[in-house]
Amino acid sequence: MTKNWTKEEILEVYNTPLMELIYKAAEVHKQHHKVGEVQVSSLLSIKTGGCPEDCAYCPQAARYHTEVKVHKLMDVAEVTEAADNAKAGGASRMCLGAAWREVRDNRDFDKVLDMVKTINSKGLEVCATLGMVTEDQAKKLADAGLYAYNHNLDTSEENYNNIISTRNYDDRLNTIKNVRKAGLTVCSGGIIGMGESIEDRVGMLYTLSLLRPQPESVPINALVAVEGTPLEDQPPVPIWDMVRMIATTRIILPNTAVRLSAGRQGMSMEGQALCFLAGANSIFAGEKLLTTPNPDYNQDMEMFKILGLSPKKAFADKEKEALV
Ligand code: SAM
Ligand code: DTB
Ligand code: SF4
Fold first, then answer.
1. What does each C-alpha distance from 235 to 50, 223, 232 come to in angstroms?
2. Residue 58 annotated to the active site
3. 0.90 exceeded by the pTM?
4. Positions of the chain with pLDDT lower than 50, given as ranges
5. Is ligand 1 within 6 A of the CB of residue 204?
6. How far, in Å, are 156, 219, 309 from residue 201 at the CA level?
7. Which sign, positive or negative, has the C-alpha torsion 310, 315, 317, 319?
8. Distance between CA 156 and CA 234 in Å, rounded?
9. Ligand 3 test: best mutation among 51, 96, 164, 191, most atoms within 8 Å of CB?
10. How many angstroms is it from 247 CA to the middle of ligand 1?
11. What pLDDT score does 313 carry?
């Protein structure tokens, strides 16, 4: 049975002396996952910038003056080519991101459904992060072959209004509910380094831990402070905070894939190694996240070699192997 954690217990875990915390997290990781196996996703921004929301961290919000160039929804052929490249680079999953507040039932959505079908037929798992969705839209995505839907809580309920005012926490939770009802797997996490307190970090993990079933994937992003956004002057997240956050996530969500997400570009290989030791078992690969830089495939494969990590295969490939 899934343990019901209290906020106090999670805070206690977070504040455990660091070496002991890493040790505990590594133990939980070993019990529930294959050590050294890392799920690799490639991210693609299929619709960039011009977003009506006011998320303080986001370079794609129309109201902030960032260098992001607005790009309308990509064509299915362009996305297919990107999927081929991602597969050749070792990705088992492709995540499509759109700078939308919510999905609308229009031709653009039909195009996204086409993208999902096409990428899926190549044996890649497909995820999407398109903003808020209704149950009906989530079902259409599931029917098209979508594997997971990403919708982050980003921070605690208490801190949410300081970061975003154009929607509320319940909107977020509601979309997650719709995604679940449609039978999709849930990817939901958040960002550290936005000026939040430790209690906010713990509060976010608390809400995630209460979801039943718990999310299959939890991305932990370190803020990428982008010029022109309200959070542009935030100092970089200390690696120790990232390690603590990952270790705590691993301990309270033992079965979840913990994704070491945005912010790897500024991290040393040693720092990332500690994150993997503390239970991170998934990353975004490829030289760009949505709009900001990320280590390229070769750099990551070099790191995998040194650390003895191997990319997890896509389900479709595993099935194929089983047949041989
Ligand atoms: N528009 C959709 C939404 O907000 O759900 C999907 C795309 S949005 C860019 C996906 C997630 O990226 C956000 O929830 C946030 O957690 C993360 N993100 C955006 N900008 C970021 C930044 N500068 N640093 C770290 N994470 C960021
Ligand atoms: C998530 O949690 N992180 C990814 C993915 N989900 C969509 C996005 C990170 C975006 C970082 C800023 C950018 O590149 O625009
Ligand atoms: Fe828009 Fe998503 Fe960026 Fe918020 S995080 S501004 S909803 S693209």
1. 26, 9, 9
2. yes
3. yes
4. 324
5. no
6. 7, 13, 28
7. positive
8. 18
9. 51
10. 22
11. 79
* pLDDT for residue 2: 87
Ligand 2 centroid–CA 101 distance in Å is 15
121's tokens: 């037929």
Q: Rounded to an integer, what distance in angstroms lies between the CA atom of residue 26 and that of residue 259?
A: 15
User: What is the per-residue pLDDT for 317?
Assistant: 59
Residue owning the nearest CA to atom 8 of ligand 3: 99
State the Cα angle at 107 between 284 and 98, rounded to 5°: 20
Calculate how far, in angstroms, residue 172's C-alpha sits from the geometric centre of ligand 3: 12
- The confidence score (pLDDT) of residue 316 equals 57
Instruction: Give the pair of three-digit tokens for residue 154.
Output: 């980003």
Amino acid letter, 195: G
Q: What DSSP state is assigned to residue 38?
A: E
Task: Give the pLDDT confidence score for residue 161 in this predicted structure.
Answer: 97
Q: Residue 4: how many CB atoms within 10 A of its CB?
A: 9
The total number of residues shown for the chain amounts to 324
- How much is the pLDDT for 191? 98
The DSSP call for residue 78 is H
